[in-house]
Amino acid sequence: MTRIISLRWINVAQLTLAGLLCIGVDLATAQSVNQSGSDRGLSDWLVRINRASERRSYIGTFVVSSADQLASSRIWHVCDGQVQMERVDALSGMPKTTIRRDQEVLTLLPGKLEGVVQNREALAIFPNILADSGPELERYYAFRHLRGERVAGYLTDLLHLNPRDELRFGYRIWSERESGLVVKLQIIGREGRVLEQTVFSELQLDAPVSLQQLQHMMANTQGYRIERPQVHKTTLESEGWQVKANVPGFRPLNCYGRQLEVASDNRLLTQCIFTDGLAPVSLFLENFDPRRHVKEGLYVSGATHGLTRRIASGGQAWWLTLVGEVPTQTLVALASSLSRR
Prior knowledge:
This protein has helices at residues 2-9, 12-18, 42-51, 120-123, 134-137, 211-219, 328-337; strands spanning 58-66, 69-79, 84-90, 97-101, 104-109, 114-119, 141-151, 154-163, 170-176, 182-188, 194-205, 225-227, 231-233, 241-243, 251-262, 265-275, 280-287, 297-301, 304-313, 316-324, 338-340. By secondary structure, the protein is of the alpha+beta class.
């Protein structure tokens, strides 16, 4: 399970902020982009953020920081109104390159000559669920619009989303004042403590980025061993599970199944993504194997919390793992609500 979890989260730190910058939405809602900042509601701001770079390219360096880690990456981003592409190179830690074309994400590890191709939906990256969730979010987050400071040389607007209960964290989102482009994002814990921050330290808007060059780079994987997990869409119910009591605000978004080939064993892994419209939580279910040494319990890294436990029913057992940018009690509540049909 450790490898699967790492593949699930390997791109999130890089793409959480970058992915916010180029997501298409219904043109019927585009009119709200022209409103003044003081007139916009939360839904209007989310539309503006999601549309911000549909016709803009940029190059920049951004830094992801938390109490226990600091990482920086370089991004080249281009969007021609139809195809959206970006390349992100890790500048610290293990060498890693991530290239995204629309919903397809390719992660390359040059040191190991290994790579993995994944679906962006399966990664549960934050902006996938942002554009149409304004009305729902206002039930669980109090929203304020403030004047933000300059970030990477640009004037900004500051959106502050404060949770109305203890099942979710707060967010501060700085967007570039002219375009709405997100240039800084903070996840806020109790007593206003910043759990994790992603911010552009340097940004060049309307930079000359070649879509064709990024497409060529994504196609050129010679010398790499590329893993392409074969996944299929499913539901918890069709896999024999049910959620007994909904955790307020969190609903299933997507569910995927795949076979894991480990030595001579074939194990089924089910992944379901839950969200309150803003915060993603991934739920993993895998058949229990007593030969594997899996550590049960809780772990925390910045804003990311994880929970692993063994569950049993009807003489069978499974490993259950939940990972998300939510408080521990949210993971415990989701785990407790799951039962075998």
